[in-house]
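User: Design a sequence. Structure:
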């Protein structure tokens, strides 16, 4: 049988976003779906302890998947151009995140590391951490998320190079299926200087570890 190749597309148009918004069910429909899943799990949604659960789950979903309401371009819109001639690598490492895999809708969690070489300016450091959440708080694959973060920085900052690395544990591999708790998946994306100059890629990995023995 031919292998099934599913696309890991990174780009979403505003038309896609509008269509998704139109298809969003009502809160009542979402709560009814949770009651169905409770029965599918084998429990009784009418028992005392579960009566408010559909409402809580529907509310929690709006938080866990808040990334659909956010736009990466807005997060990175404010650029500081006056950085006193700084042009070297900016690295924000160990950004923790929680996401949900699009295959099983169970969590994967880990750390993202983002570096870039500024060209026309820099963004506030917190914005890189916010950018991670814009994409983490959606149904995801780790590869797509890595590429989306890279593309968003490219679009907004046009830097001389971008390096994104994500390390994560997928609960769909830990608590079900293959049951390999503790394995981690590493994905990377390099553009510009990081792609063309191996020494800069090495420096990225060195900086990721630098100073950790003192913490
Ligand atoms: N490439 C990639 N795969 C992922 C990610 N998250 C989960 N997966 C994998 O998605 C795959 C889905 O495989 P399927 O065979 O369609 O589903 P399944 O029968 O539930 O697979 P098992 O997890 O092996 O039991 C599994 O191999 C998961 O490990 C991700 O971020 N990237
Ligand atoms: Zn999964």
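Assistant: Done.
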């Amino acid at each position: 049988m031919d292998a099934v190749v599913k696309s890991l597309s990174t780009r979403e148009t505003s038309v896609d976003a509008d269509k998704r918004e139109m298809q969003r069910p009502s809160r009542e429909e979402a709560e009814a779906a949770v009651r169905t899943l409770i029965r599918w799990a084998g429990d009784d949604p009418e028992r005392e302890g579960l009566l408010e659960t559909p409402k809580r789950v529907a509310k929690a979903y709006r938080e866990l998947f808040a990334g659909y309401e956010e736009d990466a371009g807005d997060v990175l819109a404010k650029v500081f151009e006056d950085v006193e001639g700084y042009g070297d690598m900016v690295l924000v490492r160990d950004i923790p995140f929680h996401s949900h895999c699009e295959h099983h809708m169970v969590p994967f969690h880990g750390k993202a590391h983002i570096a870039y070489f500024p060209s026309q300016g820099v963004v506030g450091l917190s914005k890189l951490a916010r950018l991670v959440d814009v994409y983490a708080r959606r149904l995801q694959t780790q590869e797509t998320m890595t590429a989306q973060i890279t593309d968003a920085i490219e679009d907004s900052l046009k830097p001389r190079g971008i390096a994104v690395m994500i390390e994560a544990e997928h609960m769909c591999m830990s608590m079900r299926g293959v049951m390999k708790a503790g394995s981690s998946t590493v994905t990377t994306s390099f553009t510009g200087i990081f792609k063309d100059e191996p020494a800069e890629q090495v420096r990225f990995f060195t900086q990721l570890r630098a100073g950790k023995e003192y913490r």
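DSSP finds nine helices and seven strands in the chain. The mean pLDDT is 92.
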